[in-house]
């Protein structure tokens, strides 16, 4: 089934000519791009279209019911500690998805639209790092009630589209030995480790296959914890438990979306020497406007270039994780926590992390009132200094990505452009980071430097697949010139 076209979803999103962009449009469209508009979630299996997104300003077989395990402390991982990997193996994050809450004012992504009951979800997770056994982390950070999962399974995706799973690859997920699990509000739960057979051939050489995660939600789900724009299509079933079905039964004419629900991490048993870089930012990092079911985002294409580099097979594994989240600001919250609060869990605390590429700030500038913009711009610079300092204190290298031009978008205001240029000039000369990836100079129109080149954008705010490819190539070049990654031979 086709994913709704992003251009149609964003129709009417631009501000009228001659007027500043309304702040009521900004949160998801600003740096969510096609975020929740493409993610047209369904209520208990009913079909839903994906209209333009109005956004408020930021301020199987029957199974027993889920066990009523005692609540975990808020924000904790209530999972039992699995046996450590043997020898020179270690748990390394291979998939990361920052989560947020529902979107106020959007009938396709508000609280009522993102409740599910008596259906199964099948979501596809691209793994940046291959490994042996794996474990999945379910998450309920935004929940107003426990998340009840009646059954769960994992397997390898069949092909690069559709909801099918490779025959023979499906394996049940257990949690402390049980098929059912309850995740309290604010908590996370890791599954027990599970080993999958090798994926069938047919994918891209040296690339892990997509992991298929299926969840049966037997009763009304809590307030959604979701990632509006994933890189893969996501599917809902007809009523009932279908997590063990290789061919997933979907409602007629129900389009898939791009969202991920109640999962924020997959870890694999990898060589202990495996190293991780994290791309940290907003929807430009997340990959808004890249084609669904492709690895078109900037971090994914960066990861591919490293994995296919000459001599890569002879070096310890090296992977790039995507910690981008649409609409995210560094300094203040909207439907998602501010970047400064996401940073520790999604970057600094990751075992095996050795570097971070920071790309965040255009939402802070674009959504600031004119009178507040000078103070916000200074706070943004201070925030970047703190991110770089914390990375170094944690033993990571930090590189910075200049802010892209926004001419022609709803952020197109003279004071925003001036603040953006000042931020980029400061970043280039400040030496606050170990290297600068100058996305601004790379992708701007040389005749109109306040705008992206038309061939590399669809909405004047985010790159398209071709733009992301250029940014990935530049990233690899800059890191190599700086002697950061991969190691010189």
UniProtKB/TrEMBL annotation:
Q: What is this protein called?
A: SGNH hydrolase-type esterase domain-containing protein
List the PROSITE patterns hit by this protein, alphabetically: TAT
Molecular function (GO) terms listed? hydrolase activity, acting on ester bonds
Give all residue intervals belonging to the SGNH hydrolase-type esterase domain.
279-470
**Annotated spans, Disordered:** 49-90, 223-250
Show the PANTHER family listed in the entry. Answer: GDSL-LIKE LIPASE/ACYLHYDROLASE, PUTATIVE (AFU_ORTHOLOGUE AFUA_2G00820)-RELATED (PTHR43784), GDSL-LIKE LIPASE_ACYLHYDROLASE, PUTATIVE (AFU_ORTHOLOGUE AFUA_2G00820)-RELATED (PTHR43784:SF2)
Give the matching InterPro entries: GDSL_Rv0518-like (IPR053140), SGNH_hydro (IPR013830), SGNH_hydro_sf (IPR036514), TAT_signal (IPR006311)
Against Pfam families, the record matches this protein to: Lipase_GDSL_2
């Amino acid at each position: 089934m086709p994913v709704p076209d992003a251009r149609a979803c964003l129709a009417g999103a631009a501000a009228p000519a001659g007027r500043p962009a309304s702040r009521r449009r900004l949160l998801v469209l600003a740096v969510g791009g096609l975020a929740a508009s493409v993610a047209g979630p369904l209520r208990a299996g009913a079909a839903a279209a994906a209209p333009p997104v109005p956004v408020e300003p930021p301020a199987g077989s029957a199974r027993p019911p889920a066990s009523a395990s005692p609540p975990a402390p808020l924000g904790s991982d209530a999972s039992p500690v699995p046996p450590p990997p043997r020898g020179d193996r270690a748990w390394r994050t291979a998939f990361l998805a920052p989560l947020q809450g529902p979107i106020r004012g959007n009938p396709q992504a508000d609280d009522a639209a993102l409740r599910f009951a008596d259906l199964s979800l099948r979501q596809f997770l691209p793994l940046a790092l291959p490994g042996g056994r794996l474990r999945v982390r379910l998450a309920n950070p935004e929940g107003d009630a426990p998340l009840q999962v009646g059954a769960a399974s994992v397997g390898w995706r069949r092909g690069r589209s559709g909801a099918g799973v490779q025959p023979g690859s499906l394996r049940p997920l257990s949690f402390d030995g049980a098929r059912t699990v309850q995740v309290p509000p604010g908590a996370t739960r890791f599954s027990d480790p599970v080993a999958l057979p090798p994926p069938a051939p047919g994918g891209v050489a040296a690339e892990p296959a997509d992991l298929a995660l299926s969840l049966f939600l037997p009763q009304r789900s809590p307030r959604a914890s979701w990632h509006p724009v994933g890189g893969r299509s996501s599917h809902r079933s007809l009523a009932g438990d279908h997590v063990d079905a290789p061919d997933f039964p979907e409602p007629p004419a129900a389009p898939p979306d791009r969202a991920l629900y109640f999962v924020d991490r997959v870890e694999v048993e990898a060589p202990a020497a495996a190293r991780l870089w994290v791309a940290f930012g907003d929807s430009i990092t997340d990959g808004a406007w890249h084609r669904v079911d492709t690895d078109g985002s900037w971090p994914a294409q960066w990861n591919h270039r490293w994995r296919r580099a000459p001599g890569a097979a002879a070096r310890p594994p090296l992977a790039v994780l995507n910690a981008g989240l649409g609409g995210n600001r560094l300094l203040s919250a909207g439907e998602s926590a501010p970047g400064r609060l996401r940073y520790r869990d999604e970057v600094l605390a990751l075992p095996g992390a050795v570097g971070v590429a920071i790309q965040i700030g255009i939402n802070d500038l674009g959504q600031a009132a004119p009178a507040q913009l000078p103070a916000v711009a200074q706070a943004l610079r201070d925030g970047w200094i703190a991110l770089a300092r914390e990375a170094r204190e944690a033993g990571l290298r930090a590189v910075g990505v200049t802010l892209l031009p926004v001419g022609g978008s709803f952020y197109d205001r003279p004071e925003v452009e001036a603040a953006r240029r000042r931020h980029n000039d400061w970043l280039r000369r400040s030496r606050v980071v170990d290297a600068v990836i100058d996305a601004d100079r790379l992708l701007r129109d040389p005749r109109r430097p306040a705008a992206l080149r038309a061939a590399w954008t669809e909405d004047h705010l985010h790159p398209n697949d071709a733009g992301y490819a250029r940014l990935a190539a530049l990233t690899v070049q800059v890191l190599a010139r700086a002697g950061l990654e991969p190691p010189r031979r």
